[in-house]
Structures are given as structure tokens and as C-alpha cells.
């Protein structure tokens, strides 16, 4: 397994579990989970028939020897409540992941673990999870191809209310003083600081709202960075 993002997702899967991989596309994760004897069975779904066919062709080459079932499905609609232990939804926008979970909330709630990797709107997804009785047990983050990714390991349960900063950057990543998060924050701060310098040099009054916003963001980022031990 070359891709660090997919490797990190796999790291969260419990041995002998029954897994649904939603939006599987090329099916790399299901094949790895079965070939390495991590999962007992995988149901691999995709909304697009041509996407699912990429995996189906690979399964045919392996003469049906892998315990992987494919289903063409919009989100979790073709997965029954209690049918799987673990649901993976990765490589999609955070709003789409939220929609998939909320449209099939019974199935989402009866899985013991959700492994979610949103490509954007992570704060939105964290907020939705907390408001809907899910608990973010752990998070891992990484850079791949110059992009920052976070992967959430989610269970049923309650947590203390999050601060706005925790929704944005992840309570577990902040608590664990993730080195990757620190790198990301420094990068974000540099980006915002250079926009701020540019706007300040223009000196236009119409930019004042944006300037205040940027300064607030930079202060928030500084607070997280300064809380690191070193
Ligand atoms: C960028 S690929 C991600 C593939 C893989 N999960 C990964 O993390 O690398 C997104 C896949 O999600 C599928 N998809 C998009 N919306 C979906 C939905 N509502 N239900 C199921 N699959 C969906 C797309 O067809 C596509 O194959």
C-alpha cells in the first residue's frame, strides 16, 4: 500500500470486522483489507457503475476468491442497519459525507465505528457528528501530494462541547499535539499573513472587514501553536 492516506484509514480498522467502503472507486482499500486478513468481509459500494466496475474487473481477475461484495448504491442506502461493524467514507467533501450519514442515520448509528476522511469542510462535519450523538474518538492527520488530510475515527457517544477552534482543527489533534497539525497551522498562518500584508498596503476601507477576519484567524492559529509544549 503506497498511499499514506489510505494506509492511515486501514490502520483504524479492527481485525475480523465486517466493513462497508462507501464510494470505493478503484477498490484499493477493500482488496487490501481482505488480502491482508484484516477484515472478514467488505461490502464495497459506489454511486457510479463505471467506478464500481474498476473493482469488479479486479475481482474477476482474482476469480472471486476475495470476500468482497459490490453494490451500486447512493451512500448507505443499500446497506441495512446492523449489517456492518465499520463504515469507511473517504475522499469526498465533508458536506456530502454528512448527507450520506444523515440520509441513512439508522445504518450509521448501528455501526460500531465510522472512519471518515473528508476532503474539505471538516469543521462542518465535526459539528454535525457532535450534534447527532457521535463521538470523535481519535483523529490522524497527514500531508500527501502537498495536501493536508484528516481522518476521523468516530463512535456513538457524547463529548464535552467543542470550542470553535476545536471544530476547525480537531480536538484530538490539538490534545495530542499533532506535529502535522502544527506544520499545517504554520503554513495557514503564513498564507493569511501575506494576504493581510497585501490588504493593509492597499489601505482600502472596504477591505476592513476582511482584515479583521484575517487578524482573528491568525490570533486563533497563534493560540493553538503557542499551546504546544515546544
Ligand atoms: C475521489 S473517489 C474516492 C475513492 C476512495 N474512497 C478514496 O478514498 O480514495 C470518490 C468516489 O465516491 C463516489 N461517490 C460520490 N458520491 C457518492 C455517493 N453519494 N454514494 C456513493 N459513492 C459516491 C464517486 O463515484 C467516486 O468513485
Describe the structure.
The protein has 230 residues and is α/β, with parallel strands linked by helices. It has 2 domains: 4-174, Rossmann fold, CATH 3.40.50; 181-226. It is 47% helix and 23% strand. It has helices at residues 4-11, 28-35, 49-61, 94-103, 105-110, 122-131, 164-169, 171-175, 179-202, 208-226; strands at residues 17-22, 39-46, 68-72, 86-92, 113-118, 134-144, 147-156. The chain has a 7-stranded mixed sheet with strand order 3-2-1-4-5-7-6, with helices on both faces. α1 (4-11) packs across α2 (28-35), α4 runs parallel beside α6 (122-131) and α9 (179-202) runs antiparallel to α10. The longest helix is centred in the last third of the chain and has 24 residues, at 179-202. The chain is elongated. It binds S-adenosylmethionine. S-adenosylmethionine binds next to β2, β4 and α4.
What's a concise summary of this model?
With about 230 residues, the chain is of the alpha/beta class.
What is the residue-averaged pLDDT?
Answer: 96
Order of helices and strands: HEHEHEEHHEHEEHHHH
Poorly predicted segments: none
Radius of gyration equals 20 Å
What ligand molecules are bound, each kind once? Answer: S-adenosylmethionine
Tally of discrete structural domains: 2
Look at the structure and name the CATH superfamily of the largest domain. Vaccinia Virus protein VP39
Q: Which fold name is given in CATH as the topology of the largest domain?
A: Rossmann fold
- Report helical residue fraction: 40-55%
CATH class annotation of the largest domain? Alpha Beta
Strand order, main sheet: write it out: 3-2-1-4-5-7-6
What's the N-to-C terminus distance? 33 Å
- Shape category: elongated
From the coordinates shown, what is the CATH architecture of the largest domain? 3-Layer(aba) Sandwich
Number of E strands: 7
Strand content: 15-25%
Protein structure class: alpha/beta
Helical element count? 10
How would you characterize the largest beta sheet?
Answer: 7 strands, mixed
Amino acid at each position: 500500500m503506497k498511499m499514506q492516506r489510505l494506509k492511515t484509514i486501514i490502520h483504524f480498522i479492527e481485525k475480523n470486522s465486517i466493513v462497508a467502503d462507501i464510494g470505493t472507486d478503484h477498490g484499493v482499500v477493500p482488496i487490501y483489507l481482505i488480502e491482508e486478513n484484516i477484515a472478514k468481509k467488505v461490502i464495497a459500494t459506489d454511486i457510479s457503475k463505471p467506478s464500481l466496475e474498476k473493482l469488479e474487473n479486479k475481482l474477476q481477475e482474482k476469480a472471486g476468491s476475495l470476500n468482497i461484495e459490490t453494490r451500486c448504491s447512493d451512500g448507505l442506502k443499500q446497506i441495512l442497519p446492523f449489517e456492518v461493524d465499520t463504515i469507511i467514507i473517504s475522499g469526498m467533501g465533508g458536506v456530502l459525507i454528512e448527507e450520506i450519514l444523515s440520509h441513512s442515520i439508522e445504518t450509521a448509528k448501528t455501526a460500531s465505528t465510522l472512519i471518515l476522511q473528508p476532503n474539505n469542510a471538516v469543521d462542518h462535519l465535526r459539528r454535525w457528528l457532535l450534534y447527532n450523538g457521535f463521538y470523535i474518538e481519535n483523529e490522524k492527520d497527514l500531508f500527501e501530494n502537498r495536501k493536508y488530510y484528516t481522518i476521523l475515527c468516530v463512535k456513538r457517544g457524547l463529548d464535552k462541547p467543542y470550542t470553535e477552534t476545536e471544530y476547525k482543527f480537531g480536538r484530538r489533534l490539538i490534545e495530542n499535539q499533532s506535529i502535522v497539525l502544527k506544520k499545517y497551522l504554520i503554513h495557514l498562518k503564513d498564507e493569511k499573513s501575506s494576504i493581510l500584508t497585501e490588504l493593509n498596503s492597499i489601505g482600502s476601507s472596504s477591505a476592513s472587514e476582511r482584515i479583521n477576519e484575517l487578524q482573528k484567524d491568525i490570533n486563533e492559529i497563534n493560540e493553538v501553536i503557542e499551546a504546544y509544549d515546544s
